[in-house]
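The freezer alarm interrupted the setup, so I double-checked each line after restarting. Inputs confirmed:
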Amino acid sequence: MRLFLLVLAFVALVLPIHARAQTADLAAVVSQYRDQIEKPSRQSIGPVVDEIAATGAQGAALLQAWNERLLGLRKSDGLLVIAAPEGDGLKLTDAATGADLGSAAEADVTMLRPNSGVRGVISAAMAGNALSDPDPKRRIEALDSMSRRADASQLALLREAMDDPDPALAARKQRLERMLTIQYDSDPAARIAAIEGFGGDSGLDFRASLNPILAMRRVAFEEIPSGTNIAKELSLGGDLSREDAYAMLVAEGLAPARLTPQAMRATLAQHIVQGSVGGVPLAQLADQDARDRAYTALEAQGTVQPAASDDEVEAALARYKFLDVYAEPNPDVTTAARAALRSTETRIGLMQAADLSLDALSLASIYFLAAIGLAVTFGVMGVINMAHGEFIMMGAYTGYVVQQFIADRTVSLIVALPLAFVVTFAAGVALERLVIRHLYKRPLETLLATFGVSIALQQLAKNIFGTQARPLTSPAWLDGALTFNDVVSISYIRIAIFVLALVFLGLYLFIMNRTRLGLEVRAVTQNPAMAASMGISPDRINMLTFGLGSGIAGIAGVAIGLFAKVTSELGSDYIVQSFMTVVVGGVGNIWGTLAGAALIGFLQKGIEWFNPANTLAAQTYMILFIIIFIQFRPRGIIAAKGRAVGA
Amino acid sequence: MKYYSSALAAALMTVGLAGTGWAQDDTIKIGVLHSLSGTMAISETTLKDTVLMMVEQQNAKGGLLGKKIEAVVVDPASDWPLFAEKARELISVNGVDAIFGCWTSVSRKSVLPVIEELNGLLFYPVQYEGEESSKNVIYTGAAPNQQAIPAVDYMAEELGVEKWALLGTDYVYPRTTNNILDAYLKGKGVAEGDIFVNYTPFGHSDWSKIVADVVALGADGKKVGVVSTINGDANIGFYKELAAAGVSADDIPVMAFSVGEEELAGLDTTNLVGHLAAWNYFESADTPENKAFIDEWHKFTKNDKRVTNDPMEATMIGFNAWVKAVEKAGTTDTDPVLDAIVGVEVPNLTGGTATVLPNHHLTKPVLIGEIRADGQFDIVSQTDEVAGDAWTDFLPDSAKLDSDWTGKKCGMWNTETNSCVQLGSNY
Amino acid sequence: MRKPLVLRHPSILVFLGVLAVFTVAVTVLSAGYGTGAISTSMVKTLGKTLCLALAAVAMDLVWGYAGILSLGQMAFFALGGYMIGMWLMVARTEGIVAGSLANLPIPPTDAEISAAVATQIFGVVGSDKFPMIWAFSGSLWGQLALVVLVPGLLALVFGWLAFRSRVNGVYLSILTQAMTLALALYLFQNDSGLRGNNGLSGLQNIPGLDAVSQEKLSIWFLWASAVTLGLGYLLIAWVASGKFGSVTRAIRDDEARVRFLGYSVEGYKLVVFVLAAVVTAIAGALYYPQAGIINPAELAPIASIYLAVWVAIGGRGRLYGAAIGAIFVSMLSSWFTGGRAPDVNLGFYTIKWVDWWQVLLGLSFVLVTLLAPKGIAGLVDLFEGLRPPKRQGQPMGPDMGSLREKEAVE
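Predicted 3D structure, all chains:
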């Protein structure tokens, strides 16, 4: 509440010009436009806002409250009030006079809900003044609002308020001023200078200010009027198909329409005489040729308007020139804008490629993370675990449950990661002891038994957590994105997943190559009997290895849940892809899994790039590619060599 | 002795044969055909509870035609062929007089032939893609002109959107809706290049590229708006990516047609404040009817946190319309009820009334809501009631079709040739 | 002179007999031709179950006899359904459209009828043209041929590629799963030309048989399903019984040895795989007109895995086991998920079978795999007093026959 009063005070202070130029009484304005204030529309509210703003400090306070959705109607008498929240209730102020009306319960006031379009108009109206506001936050807001909906009038306001104590804001103002100059300055030379002043800038906002200049429309002229800023003369059949060109003439009323089959049919139906049309019996008219004959006969009789013939169409097309014409009349400006845009094209293309590569890398790391647990259980042990996806899901739900108990998201994440490992490690060990141990000799049956576990676990999750997706929210420091420029950016959560994937790669290599456990695992994998005779317990090692793979899946689950969603189907969304990753990469080799994930990630993004309208197609063709790939390289990208092959 | 094995098979085959129902004459039976298991359970279970609540209320008021109403609940388990099977069972075995059910379009299309064959009566409570009008179905959800078209108008007029990204899950509702919107926008002078369309699979989670594509649309200097027909879980990843990319509702507003109170419960909405949804009902509607409905709902489910949503209102309206029609007709037989139901008026929860039209759709107000931080919606726009249009005016093949079950007795009337294309519906 | 097949394997005769008795019983009790004790929806369920049983029998040939755990069988099943569904949709719509266009003053051209049919069928997915793959959809015989050809060809190409590269074991399973996933995803796309997620619907209305009520039609389909199941069972039993069957089983047990003996392992596998695919597709073509609707969800990987589950629970390696498994589990499934099973009240918690059936199924599946690898059909052995030898210890190597360490000691 105090903050709000403070804001009011600010507004009162910073509007000295308007306060002096108080032209109309606010109460009168409010009552005059009462309907529009209650049900405002973006397109008509502008003048009302301007009038209110012109009434002075209280008007500005009203606008401010309106923008922040604090304006309401008192139910008892319909008075327009500013209702600021205060404790459980509301503190009311008369919007027109500023008189204190005491407090009221929330139920006593109907709050007005101006939509965001209207709020945009209001904040744009206030932006001019807010540009010099002492509060940097309000200056930023004003700049934001101005860059969203600028018009010529604001260019002058902005130029008045160019000085800014904050150098970053001053630079932003400078940039916005140049941008507005390009669009709204009345002097073409200044505009061209502004365009060229940006050099090869590839910012989205810069392109956004250039593109409207280059907006064009397609027209047909017999004689090209002078002063037309032509973008391109279109060649018929090349740039513009003859059909489209003629359709354009028809649409503009410059030529008669051609006869469509529907129109012909309707016309024929109107001229049925004693069971025949133009001498052709009705029964024969189930044939297009017969209909043509009938129509020609009617034309000959003069009963119907002759349709445009091919020759007439040709003549009409020859008579007209088809052009793309710029809306901007000054050719120098369009030339400069075009040159500036063209110079950015290559860089934008490169940046888009870079952005796509980042996306692909991110997808690859997600697949890698989902598959690395499998690389242990399937790759090293050769155990096919269809419940692997459900371990991922268990990890994600662990994260969700932890978040229910620990409110601080950073702490909850720190707790959730190891806890997810512990939970899924335990589940993995239990699965290995109870089921898989008995089926080492029967791999196909392992597949089916673990599948049974998978459907049971999935349904169990549904029974416990419901079928609806559960929120797993990342800590604030993982919000947002690392933005290199307007094109290339990647969200922090994806970077975190990438880092996590790298960490696990390192961890895997460390465990397998540098620890006693890894040594024993490799020994058991290569020759269980020999390992056993050396004092290694294959039973224990199998159990630990399987637990390790499952535990990693749990941690992957937390990461995947953070970036996507937590549902009972989370695991099954990834299971086929995970197996593909391992199989494509080559079983038994972590580098293979890495290569497989990279291949799948980049491939999918590549196909998406070719066909951006249909993501489903990308997944389909990716899987198809993998199926074919495996036919030709059954052992994967990095094939195991030597004795291990037979094992 | 091996023969016993096969005898066992025969015994097992006959296991399922038992279970034929018996008819009780002192009750009126209605069927509830909503999935209670499988992927659609989360949405549809709520509607089953709504019907049960309405039945309980009606029975407390003394029932219908002096009889109690009995709800027969079956579970089609999100399995589309099963919807047809269960519908047949409800009508021919249980002898229900009306069915309240279905959510997805494909489940409705699965039930249609059975309902029409057996001359049943289905109340379908979900917003859908239109292009259909069956004699035996009352569509109590929104047709495209009661949701999509007004929402797009709102975006163009109130938000100044000039460039459109139509993002949807790849199935029939988004496809048809986007086709209609595409034709509608082009009719309003939007250029081909200013409409970006993308379809993603169910449950899609990798949204970075698509969000980047949408942001890149802004390079034209035109205001970009997203019309989202993304379904279910996939929304979560989408909104998360949107928030991560720092796309605010002021820059690129997202208008969703399939995101309601229930879906937002799975999300942290602080980053989504200001994005939009279009429905015919929001829980935040400030009317006494709505307050009473929400209170009843909380009491019935014994849970103060259960949210209400648009399909629930549609279910409520459908049930009340049926009750009124039965009272008017004095019987529960399908044909008299269908004759009586056209013109029946039922109060909406958001104020105004819903009237059953001759094309078996309703009049509905269109509401636009902005997402609030608490997962509810601020209603920023509410129109008067709009009459539902079975066949859209914006696709050439449909524009010439009309539906009128009172005068022309046809759901697919070709106004150009003045003839009925077909009496059954197109499934 | 060898005895006829059915006498060498009396189980075939029993199976066929039971099937015939069952069919007659259902007919007598049906609403269409009998007392009406069995509702039409139940008749349809039974008819569909027979089709599933046939698919399971084919699955058993592939898995139980040839050892190929194919997790993509339902792709063939659904393809069969799609192929017959195309004709059903076109023929039905053509009847409606021709009827409505005939009222016009000017009779319609063929092109106009075709365009109107296309609009009706594809209006749902926002198109009004027939895609290429519908080229034969106007002809029943054309589509019937495709029911066999399309899945057969898919199996042939896929199998040839996979067996040739010696992809086997779990790799092959994953690959077949990927195949059905890719096909499902492809069909989910609206651009695929098979109406995307909506699939083909209204298939229960058979063109030209509008006058026949569903009560009777459902019985006709039950008969057709029973006859097809009987014939399919006979065919597969015949294939699995002779020398061909022996080689197939040998491949299952040790592929490398069979190859060294000079048999073309790939050829045998390919024949089995394609044959099973074709039989499955025929079962699918009979199933979907009874179900009424087919859409891509039908060939999601999970469906094929369930098929494997049925065969495993029924008892693989015996055809009647597979059929029993499919019938038993699918009927039980529908009983539990249909909300007909009574809830179990434990006092502190009420078990709703709708929620817990899947858990039960999953766990029982694990138990069957672990404890009763022979499945339900194992009960028959128990009945006949057949016991497998108790195997203990490690194998002792090729020279010692099938004896193992401890057995040798005893």
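Quick read of the result. The mean pLDDT of chain C is 87.
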